[in-house]
């Protein structure tokens, strides 16, 4: 089992798909890493040699911000907005959509489960 950036990659998946299990690496970045190292896109993680796993690990460490560092950086950016009391920071603090979506209807993902209003009968 290959362990890269603190994440166990699934052994029976293709390398491109397995790399996307790492927070901060998507399909495009995974393809770029594989192309840079000359790894075939159809190869499975279980077929990789130890040297190739080390190469992937070093490439990710050098060129990409992933997992804990990326999560910490994102959290610090949100905290900075909230400390500045900017509009976006207030929306984060109140748990409302940040990017201009409507809230009259929808927005249930951010607002949570609907709360019934007592005594609202015909």
TrEMBL record:
SUPFAM superfamilies: S13-like H2TH domain. GO terms for biological process: translation. It holds the Pfam family Ribosomal_S13. One of its GO terms (cellular component) is cytosol. Located at the top of the head of the 30S subunit, it contacts several helices of the 16S rRNA. In the 70S ribosome it contacts the 23S rRNA (bridge B1a) and protein L5 of the 50S subunit (bridge B1b), connecting the 2 subunits; these bridges are implicated in subunit movement. Contacts the tRNAs in the A and P-sites. HAMAP family: Ribosomal_uS13. NCBIfam families: uS13_bact (TIGR03631). Part of the 30S ribosomal subunit. Forms a loose heterodimer with protein S19. Forms two bridges to the 50S subunit in the 70S ribosome. Belongs to the universal ribosomal protein uS13 family. This is Small ribosomal subunit protein uS13. It comes from Pontixanthobacter aquaemixtae. The lineage of its organism: Bacteria, Pseudomonadati, Pseudomonadota, Alphaproteobacteria, Sphingomonadales.
